[in-house]
RNA polymerase sigma factor
Amino acid sequence: MVQHATAAVEAAYRNERRRVLATLVRLLGGFEAAEEALHDAFAAAAERWPREGVPANPYSWLVSAGRFKTIDRWRKQGRLAAALPSLVVITEPEPEPEMPEHIQDDELRLIFTCCHPALSPDARIALTLREVGGLTTEEIARAYLTRTPTIAQRIVRAKAKIRDEGIPYEVPGRRELPARLESVLRVIYLVFNEGYAATTGPGLIRADLSAEAIRLARLLLSLVDEPEARGLLALMLLHESRRRTRVDAAGDIVLLEDQDRSAWARGLIAEAKGLIEAAFATRRAGPYLPQAAIAGTHSDAADFGATDWSRIVGLYDVLSQVEPSPVVALNRAAAIGARDGPEAGLAAIEAAIADGGLDEYHLAHSARAEMLRRLGRVVDARAAYRQALALCRQPAERRFLEKCLAALANYDATIRPHS
């Protein structure tokens, strides 16, 4: 029983921690009290579940335990009078929503709070990834190539601003939603990306984060039916459809060209295609819809060789106009290499690197190395792979780059370019 209860506490921490925290933030009115209550709740679970059994609804149990532990602490600290307004709120039953469009999901409410326009863009992202995505401060710092103390300061200042300015924990009204949407979509996609290609840990994929981002995107779409909300959900569904084929049994990366397309989740692909079609019908597009269309083009191809690379390059042209960035330029260059051959691809990739912003991006050097390999420039390819490896921290990606280097070890440096 003890072993079962311990496993249940660990599972609840993995799966319910973010939801419990979001609800406690709403109930207790602030991050500091909620985080302390969350710690108390899991400490109580670790002590009581082995003795009393695992509750039927761990989420409700943890919320209740955290809430009443906070009440007890406030009473013991002799701050009952000061805390009375809060105690009234958290001990009274919550009223039922009066309007059907009121959102009851505490995590979505928390996202809109973390993405409030009063906070700086960097602070919004850091705070959301910490409080909603559950990433550690160190993980966020690594993801953004920033020092850990810098991220910690952003989070602390953001929480203080929310507290001091009385920013409400609520989903904004419908009139405010469009202005708040861009920031929320961006953060949801960042949470998904951390699940799609984890910046830390032994595995490439964190399925829990990806699933959470998709759930939040579905919830958001139910609130605001905007083309970009559809585009983002479609994009994530298409990536998620390939999750099982992106790594092998050992956790090593399987390239798109080598993936078993019969194992792609066709139900998710069909749902995504419907979202893309409906979004394009509005004739309004931001950065997510073209990306979803690119991913959809890959899903249409029976195999890698049948991919419509001309369409993909054209969609990257659109994306470059909507939201130009060094990474978009790099991906467009790689698509040109697939369409027109390695010589054209190498020229495009080197042009993208020369434009700046990619020097510290390991995938840029890896993409350049691949074009050099295909051209038979083995010495240059090795140097580029080593450069990529020096910048890469993700274990699965490092193993992949090491394999690429090992495969080049047997190549003759005088090998002639492909004809």
